[in-house]
Amino acid sequence: MIYKGDNLHVDFIEPGIAEITFDAPGSVNKFDEKTLTEFSEALDSLSGNSDLRGVLVRSAKPTFIVGADITEFLTLFADLEKTKTWVHKASRVFDKLEDLPVPSVAAVNGFALGGGCEAILACDYRIADETAVIGLPEVKLGLIPGFGGTVRLPRVIGPDNALEAITTGMNHKPEKALAVGLIDAVTSSDHLKEGALSILRDAIAGELDWQAKRQPKLEALKANDTEKLMSFSTAKGMIWAKAGKHYPSPHAALEVVERGAGEAREEALNIENELFVKLTQTDAARAQVGIFLADQLVKGKSKKVAKSATKKISRAGVLGAGIMGGGIAYQSASRGVPVVMKDIRRDALDLGLNEASKILGKALERGKISQKVVAKTLTSITPTLNNSELADVDIIVEAVVENPKIKASVLAEVEKVVAKDAIITSNTSTISIDKLAESLEDPSRFCGMHFFNPVHKMPLVEIIRGKHTSDETIAAVTAYALQMGKTAIVVNDCPGFLVNRVLFPYFAGFSKLLDDDIDFTGIDKVMEKEFGWPMGPAYLCDVVGMDTADHATNVMAEGFPTRMARDDNGAIAKLAAAERYGQKNGKGFYEYSVDKRGRPQKVVNPDVYEIIGKKSATADKDEIIARCMIPMVNEMIRCVEEGIVDSAEEADIALIYGLGFPPFRGGAFRYLETLGLEKFVELADKYADLGEIYQVTDGLREKAKTGGTYFKS
To answer: How far apart are CA 309 and CA 479, in angstroms?
Structure first.
């Protein structure tokens, strides 16, 4: 044995050929500080070995290396000097691999991401099997590659391909990786090791010029000034169009590749180190790393709950077709759980089937699925007008009109049809689960299962536990949500649950701005362009539907009469009364149509001001942001303090996946803590006279005084 560590080992597998095998305890290999130290020591052992003629790098696991250990990042990045030292030292470990005096080949299986990709780039040759997925996703964490990826990738596949890969974080499957030159060969998993050894033997024998293959990675980028100018100018325009000003990492990636293009490896690496460290100190990186860690926490928690389920969901029923019901039916059927879609009207069933067909048609057009998949999915959806078809389903998802009396009646009716152990859920967005449970004989098998529209795109499902809901019901519904490819977050019952409960104070803050004669177009512009929401509050009301928002206001007002009282003179109520329902009928705050090319467009028609009143006052962007966001953050804090949601991490993921909260801000709690608890309290107190939604809780005030945090990790 040449070297043996806890996470990797090195030994000769035939005369002159040493094999570096990554095999960490646990399910995957990753570059934590310990693994990097062992990797460095192993390479030192190899570089001084006189018998060495070639090196094979591989994994003993189903995946190669999934990247750096992100759980170490937030702690590490808090110490600037430690971060500088760490990234400089860590990146030079990969130089040791590249500088071995013999040829090296990486045998890539499964994920080779981030540091895993950078490790194979430091090898002279790369061969992958059919399971390989290779990429540099650091931009999704608000960072850039830190182990030499920005230096080596442009020199291996060219600056255009490299910039596209680095600034988008895109992954490469074997065919694409081979086409751009990221790997040198593709083989089956059965022949991966032998294929790698064959390349290595040819290089040792001099049949492959491995030194010539390595040399470009050590030198300045081989492109003339015109080529570089074209590449970097084009990339700059694309990055601004896609990333805008809120995401610094894609811009930094371009800068590091452009500045390093004329430099040899060492100086180019110094530039990468400089920009990497700079990004670690940005709010965006902390937020995006925080999202990753929160997402891991949520997924780990839901998988643990799902594993405890004793009831398997093999067949589902959806009550209420239409767009939402059709979307739920599609999602279930597309993930292998056949669905009976029941409605009382044939035209509603047709609408639901059309919704599923439309989603499948778009995927087929883009080449993401085959005609065979389309046919299989559609045949897995059984439309019916008869309750008897639901007799053998394992779960019911009720998705009828958002009316408590109608829902209660439908739920009571279906309980008599389905099996005694069938689970019943409601897709209600605001109505109390405990209230709906009163219509059932066995409320223990009932809970909320709140999907977000459009179902196939929005990743979140809120699972709402009522006071009588059993643990087994929660476990089975969580397992079903995961089976559908969704992120499941379990919350406790209250009006609006979590996401809609915190959304309505946000709408209330928006409405108060309108009451002060601030124009909705200016508010939308600030909340989209400055704060970063995908759509401002007026536009979001139009998408939700003014009638839906107005109806939900009654539910929220009943649940929280002092904080969310209904305003009959507010803009939303007035627009709903005028039957300006938003996108569903083409008129809301905005008017909707398609242009000559068939693209959707929205415009402001002055007649909207005849309904909501003329809006001629102005407010600066900071005031607009504060008056919209303080109510949302305050309500989210109440939800955690009341135990509606278990943690700040889950709350943040719910807002990002359910509402599209700007990822670079990391969620309501990350936004709060980035701003600073004391500063937030001071800001909220400034607006406290506007009403209860602006008044902070005693718990927040205490945390601000003591320097506390809402995050558990």
So the answer is: 7
Tokens of 103: 């040829």
Tokens of 68: 């750096």
Topology of domain 308-495 in CATH is Rossmann fold (3.40.50)
Active site residue 450: yes
User: What CATH homologous superfamily does 3-281 map to?
Assistant: 2-enoyl-CoA Hydratase; Chain A, domain 1 (3.90.226.10)
| pLDDT tens profile 50-100 | 999 999 999 999 999 999 999 999 889 999 999 999 999 999 999 999 999
Q: Where in the chain is the domain with CATH 3.90.226.10?
A: 3-281
Question: What is the phi/psi pair of residue 440, to 5°?
Answer: -105, 145
Token pair recorded at residue 641: 């303090």
Rounded Cα–Cα distance for residues 205 and 371 (Å): 49
Render pLDDT for 351-408 as a digit per residue (tens, 0 to 9).
999 999 999 999 999 898 999 999 999 999 999 999 999 999 999 999 999 899 999 9
> Span 500-643+676-706: which CATH code?
1.10.1040.50
pLDDT beneath 50, residues of the chain: none
Annotated active-site residue in 9, 172, 251, 450: 450
**C-alpha torsion 493→495→498→501, nearest 10:** -170
Peptide bond into 663 cis (omega under 30): no
* Contact assessment for residue 499 and residue 659, using Cβ atoms and an 8 Å cutoff: yes
C-alpha–C-alpha distance, residues 56 and 199, integer Å: 10
Helix or strand run (H / E) with residue 488: strand 487-492
Considering the chain, tell me which residue range(s) the CATH 1.10.1040.50 domain(s) occupy.
500-643+676-706
In sequence order, the 6+-apart residues with CB closer than 8 A to the CB of 428 are 398, 402, 407, 436, 448, 450
Q: Which of 325, 555, 504, 548 is nearest to 425 (CA)?
A: 325
- Name the phi and psi angles at 125, rounded to 5: -130, 155
Helices (H), 484-598: 499-515, 520-525, 537-544, 546-559, 571-577
- Residue 112 CA to residue 118 CA, distance in Å, equals 8
pLDDT the model gives residue 228: 80
Residue (of 538, 445, 547, 450) closest to 495 by Cα position: 450
pLDDT at 713: 65
Q: Do the strands 54-59 and 17-22 form a parallel or antiparallel pair, or are they unpaired?
A: parallel
Rounded CA separation 235/164 (Å): 8
SS3 189: helix
560 Cβ contact list (under 8 Å, min separation 6): 495
Instruction: Give 429's DSSP letter.
Output: S
